[in-house]
Amino acid sequence: MRAGMRAETLEAGAVEGGSVPSGGDGTPVRATGPALTVLLGLSLSHLLNDLVQSLLPAIYPLLKQSFHLDFGQIGLLTLAFQATASLLQPAIGLSTDRNPMPFSLAAGMAVSLVGLGLLSLAPTYAVLLAAAALIGLGSAIFHPEASRVARLASGGRYGLAQSVFQVGGNAGTALGPLLAAFVVVPHGQGSVAWFGLAALSGIAVLSAVGRWYAGRLAAAPRTPRVTVGSDAAGLTRARIVATVAILLALIFSKFFYTASFSSYYTFYLIHRFGVPVAQSQLYLFVFLGSVAAGTLLGGPIGDRFGRKLVIWVSILGVLPFTLALPHVNLFWTVALSVPIGLILASAMPAILVYAQDLLPGRVGLVGGLFFGFAFGMGGLGAALLGELADRIGIEQVYALCAYLPLIGLLAVMLPRLR
């Protein structure tokens, strides 16, 4: 419990303008800027974590052929992965809020390493399920505590810190399928073991980050627990709950629409415009690159102009582009994918920092809840949109998804935080 109080003291000090404890005497001093080495280490480890995480669905066609799986069994693999990666994150975040565990970051990557080992050697479908669950569990352990460390390393520039942290995950998600195509598909299931090098690198980086985090916890003064909600945000508990629900609805609109691109954009381009598979992958990387750029820009812009404005513009502002996309030619489809990815992705860092300000002392819970919900919505969106595409066609799916950003109108109900 004392560790939890010290972590909350660090967070509370950051809320009050970027001040941090200077040593054992507890005298606070103003931070001079972000701890960039720590932030870059977190971003790199996020890249490695999400690279490993994205490897599993990338090799589904190989596993389907090798183990003679039907689509129902593929769906159970996804369920095993998402049940641990999404559903456990809030519980893990709440636990680490109470008892911070600096070296849980490296431990989470170690769990993913075990999952990779099982995946590379799995002789049966049951072992594949266990491997999927372990990779998801490693991701669930990583995200909440990593989000807290990013805030502590921000020097008061919370949006910038979250953007640097999250853009690593975007890069890892993009690289996973690409590396799977060049390494696993030509060389078979056993070559998955080579990705253990990525997990080992992540363990090394996160061990160093954990030592930095442990030092900050040891230096923090021991003070009473921070009151959640009203003191920092000036809101009643009911208003806080309603605001969290609005933020989750915005996450739903963002990641459901993003799922239409990440899972089906290549099929859309091939079906509508007849482009070759390789060319469609290139256009997908154009979109993913714009997502990475939007993630990197969204946090600093929020630091400068305010979270609520960025949330409002980034989600609702994309509507004209999404409405136009189903009705234009190939050139303009690719061109419109750039502002769509750029504007839509800028929301996530702003939403996360806004929620952290809304719930001071609950950074782990916020990270677990929002990352878990975002990941779950992406997976659910991919599944439901796939079923819908089978029934009405992929082009109609994009025409319907174009209206999802209208949910961004809820942003007008977000309170202005002190």
Automatic annotation (TrEMBL):
Q: For this UniProt record, give its keywords in alphabetical order, as a comma-separated list.
A: Membrane, Transmembrane, Transmembrane helix
Q: Where is the Major facilitator superfamily (MFS) profile domain?
A: 38-418
Recorded superkingdom: Bacteria
Q: Does the keyword Membrane apply?
A: yes
Is Chaperone included in the keywords of this UniProt record? Answer: no
Q: What is this protein called?
A: Fosmidomycin resistance protein
Q: Which PANTHER family does the annotation name?
A: FOSMIDOMYCIN RESISTANCE PROTEIN (PTHR43129)
Instruction: Name the InterPro entries on file.
Output: MFS, MFS_dom, MFS_trans_sf
Segments crossing the lipid bilayer: 125-143, 164-185, 191-214, 235-257, 277-297, 309-325, 331-353, 365-385, 397-414
Q: Which organism is it from?
A: Methylorubrum suomiense
Q: Which SUPFAM superfamilies match?
A: MFS general substrate transporter
